[in-house]
């Protein structure tokens, strides 16, 4: 953390800037980026989760002071209560979180409430867009394309990134949603169902290869442990998570809501161009 005096100065400057952006606006859609590139100095000053909490409180105070009448906060579920007391799920960020990029956003919900901002909490989920930006099908030694997620046979809620903004716009148009939580998705599919849709779009077989969570944690890439915890939460809590995301209700807000198949029809050229 920064020294108290410097922290107050940085917060004051940030709030003034954000408040100026909010002045005169009816509403604000607030989104923070846990994955934003940061300098070594910024990383030493605060963790990515602490950065998001700082940014969320800055936005909450600025929205309050600017008199914004409706704020939508792009947030996620808190995984900690579900995993409480579990020795098989590693704690991260000094033991504070299990999935920091989920839990910090959920923790920030209270900051908006504390500052009395008229809120809708928009809970998102896995992006379909990951299949063209890091989770592309990979060609194995036998020539078969595969996708690999530690989801076992459980459904994973997904959404097109574009539909988050479209749904947020619909939320702005309904003042009755102030004070509520809206949880969204565009589809609920198992790994085999994602693979089948990719097979159809690409015109060649795509297989699903589930990994045990412990194996995924040991893959060695940055955030492997955090992502494994995330997928374990998706899988073990799938009934509650998918149940909160009623596709028919989301489609009432956003009639153009994309299923995975319809999203693939718009992005299959990107998929075909991706190295595999």
Nutshell version of this structure?
With 276 residues, this protein is of the alpha/beta class.
Write the layout of secondary structure elements.
Elements: H1 4-22, E1 27-30, H2 40-45, H3 48-66, E2 70-75, H4 80-83, H5 100-114, E3 119-123, E4 126-127, E5 138-139, E6 145-147, E7 156-159, H6 161-172, E8 180-183, E9 187-189, H7 191-202, E10 206-208, H8 213-217, H9 224-236, H10 238-244, H11 247-253, H12 260-273
Parallel strand pairs: 1-2, 2-3, 3-8, 4-7, 6-10
Antiparallel strand pairs: 5-6, 7-9
Helix pairs in contact: 1-3, 3-5, 7-12
Describe the structure.
The protein is of the alpha/beta class and about 280 residues long. The chain has a single domain (about 5-275), classed as Rossmann fold (3-Layer(aba) Sandwich). It is about 50% helix and about 15% strand. It has helices at about 5-20, 40-45, 50-65, 80-85, 100-115, 160-170, 190-200, 215, 225-235, 240-245, 245-255, 260-275; strands spanning about 25-30, 70-75, 120-125, 125, 140, 145, 155-160, 180-185, 185-190, 205-210. The strands form three sheets. It has a four-stranded parallel β-sheet with strand order 1-2-3-8, with helices on both faces. A three-stranded mixed β-sheet has the order 4-7-9. Strand 5 and strand 6 (about 145) form a beta hairpin. Helix 1 crosses helix 3 and helix 3 (about 50-65) runs parallel beside helix 5 (about 100-115). The longest helix is centred in the first third of the chain and has 19 residues, at about 5-20. It is globular.
